[in-house]
Amino acid sequence: MCLTMIDFRTHPERYRHWKLEVVGRVAYLNMAVDPNGGINPGYEMKLNSYDLGVDIELADAVLRLRFEYPQVGAVVIGSALDRVFCAGANIGMLATAPHALKVNFCKFTNETRNGIEDASANSGQHYLAAINGNAAGGGYELALATDHIMLIDDRRASVALPELPLLGVLPGTGGLTRLTDKRHVRRDRADIFCTFEEGLKGQKAVDWKLVDELAPAPSFAEAVADRARAFAEASDRPRDGTGVELTDLDRTIDGDTIRYSCLQVEIDRRPRTASLLLQGPQTAAPTDPEQAVTQGATYWPLALARELDDAILHLRLNELEIGTWLVRSKGDLDAVLTHDAFVARNLDHWLVREVALLWARVLRRLDVTSRTIIALIEPESCFGGNLADLTLAADRSYMLAGTWGGEGGSVAYLAFTDASRGLLPMSNGLTRLQTRFWGDDEGLEMAEAAIGETLNAEVAANAGVVTDAMDDLDWDDELRLMIEERASFSPDGLTGLEANLRFSGPETMETKIFGRLTAWQNWVFQRPNASGDAGALKRYGSGIRPEYDQRRV
Amino acid sequence: MSWQDIDYETLIPNNVGLAEDARLQRALEGWHPGYIDWWMSMGPEGFQMADVYLRTAISVEKEGWAKFGYVKMPQYRWGILLAPEVEDRVIPCGEHLGEPVWKEVPGEYRAMLRRLIVIQGDTEPASVEQQRHLGSIAPSLYDMRNLFQVNVEEGRHLWAMVYLLHRYFGRDGRDEADDLLRRQSGSEEQPRMLGAFNEETPDWLSFFMFTYFTDRDGKMQLEALAQSGFDPLSRTCRFMLAEEAHHMFVGYTGVKRIVEATARAMAETGIEDPYDVEAVRKLGVIDLPTIQRKTNLHYSLTLDLFGSEESTNAAGSFNAGIKGRYHEDRIDDDHQLRGDTYPVTKLVDGELQAVAVPALNGLNARLRDDFIEDCLGGIRRWNREIASHGIDFEITLPHVAFNRAIGEFGPIEVTPDGKVITADEFAASAAEWLPTPDDKALIDALMEPEVEPGRFASWIAPPSRGINNQPTEFEYVLLP
Predict the structure, then answer these.
(1) N or C, which terminus of chain B has less Cβ within 10 Å?
(2) CATH of the domain at B224
(3) Which domain does A41 fall in, by range?
(4) What value of ipTM does the predicted structure carry?
């Protein structure tokens, strides 16, 4: 469906749309979108409007800043264009993109914004937005992802969410929810703001809490730099120290096999499955955080997290029909647990903290992925620590009871550690065990009692941490039947089912955004009022008014 | 009271029945002191107490709409004047074609209309600000008076836009009206909205070029807005156009008198080569190549004001019926343009060529083309003036892609005759095409004031006749 295969791997040297500059403890990430640099042909990205390609670079930069620049305590998102901040998602792209691309684009975009918020909240890298001109739609949404929004006070620059009046769609990639839940803009004012296509400027934007601060034009850059330095001073990141270079991911795609250094993906197109085989560590865990720094991008948990993240994104965007992912692992469980213990002991080190935070984000990316995820825990698998939490991220998990062939040989083990007690929170703010046993305190207690133990299939099944334990006589057939059955269901129905069941418990801003993104936003996008031939998205730019079906649904 | 009568009894002269609209009157009277403050601080510098022979609008009828007399500028009767209502007027274009015009703002087009009015409104005070230092270097009392006439009328045009904002756009409109006084031309902090209105007008040649080219953009925009289906805007603009004609006249005759002085001086001293700049400059006149370079500059800056060649906003406002084309009511087509195309010059594979774009999206380019056509008449007459003195030189308009910052040609460099070149090549020849520091020094040196009635600076010829049938030696400004 996508016109070209989308590659999420990039590097600052290859950026077409962003300029990254680090001055002392402050990084400047300035947007300068190449109008002709669209990821697909057929649209021109004027006024810093963006598409997925622009966001891929942003996500890359946000990640690199965390790993490659330990000293950076504040990041300013700005624009390199004169008097233009960012006009939001490119309308030509939205009007022509297939629905799946739009959905995945919005999801990825919001994940990047969550990553920015995660950096501000947990990583000591505080984000600021320096709005030097008009910030509209996704442009303002991007600013909303930062901690502190500065607006140039020249009586021209404004912030706006004009999606509804102009395009008949929603500022749904977090815009609406961040207004009310993050910036605490009153709902009636938010209503006015979102129907007022020109947006607000100056003092009124401050009074309505849409921005935090105004600065006059001649001293804007200076005011931003001063504020950013103050944020950086408050950071707990080291003042110096060597970063870890995120070297290019080593990935080869060979037909239906995708190979990374510690992950291999096999696609089987008939039952429409992908098998993700995670490899355990080949080298011993470091004993000292500086060793991890020295190992750099090859440090096993970091390498695997990056590779898994890339594989998730690649499969999501480029393999739309591969509806079921089978997650497997292979390796030495003890070695995994040694790595896990090292992380647990050294969370006060910046790199170790970053690795833990990255794992949490990768698992959250999996949580919001619209694929059936099935974890298979087999002999020689190594689901321990954070990898054990991966089995809880699955919609179902199956564990082999006994050995292959019934005689001798090794059995399957599963080992939860303290990582499952809060190091890897879901978007709803809970651990995966708390979510799994939401409202069932006894069940949760039993499951948490198993943390720190090495569980065989029977024990794991009894503790309720796997779906089922099956012996080798049933294994192949049961799996085959389940996969075939899954493949026969409506993909849309499955997406809705899984997304509903994965997030029990309370809502947070993050769950609300994803939920509403995949429900309201995509519903509106799909409706003829937006994407029909006479709909607002199609008519935008032609000068001709859209025709709406006036019935409220 | 009918619309024909102007009510001079109130603080704000008007033909919109202000006395009967207490709310609006209160709003405008609230804005008035800020306006006077703005005029005193940003209006013509040094001449606020002078008595200036100005015309003041007293009627909106075609015949005898103005009276002339001495006025101190701060006491000028800025008023709110709308052209007479046309009976049974219908929306002239777009999807509401043929429906009765709107007397109130249609809710769905409120934002679009407000934006158009704010942008138009922002240019009016901007030019007053740009020209505020020119009084003290005026080449004659006649020209000084024309400058001030243009200034007070730009001030009145601001009033016209502010009236629309106050009357039809509620609190947002009042906020925008306040901002019109707060932005300042050339300010780093709060500049005017459009680029050309933040450029300096440092001398009188610039002023005449500005009134010839840039005010002509204003005229084209007013012509397009005069076609609006929102009748109060249409009527406002129609009356503004009557005043705008004088601004065109000032620019056209100003440049014409400059080339006349140059050509005459050359003929009298027997200099035939217009490029013998050194000799020409010694005569106390402005050499023709410098005038060509100033033409190139002001023309290209003004073309930027028309916006992007292909424009969503232009398409939207036309289709909505709130902004028409130049002389929409005289065009013979369906006035809806769906499915039509318009040729727009674009860069295709490194070459400039006409490309057919949807006519709705090409409306900015079309208005710009009408503007170019409108510019040519005066230039032909300038050239006739030069030729009448036996001098072989023609002022020409550069290619539409030359020296542009906005739209299709923003990122490229093009010679005045339309050849695409590199940025380095452009830089190498820029001194040939655009005003140089040397040109500026020459012009600045000539900017000596001349305040003797009937006398004119060496570089500009006297006009063929005075204002309101007064002689040229009439004392158009009584200096305090």
Answers:
(1) C
(2) 1.10.620.20
(3) 12-233
(4) 0.76
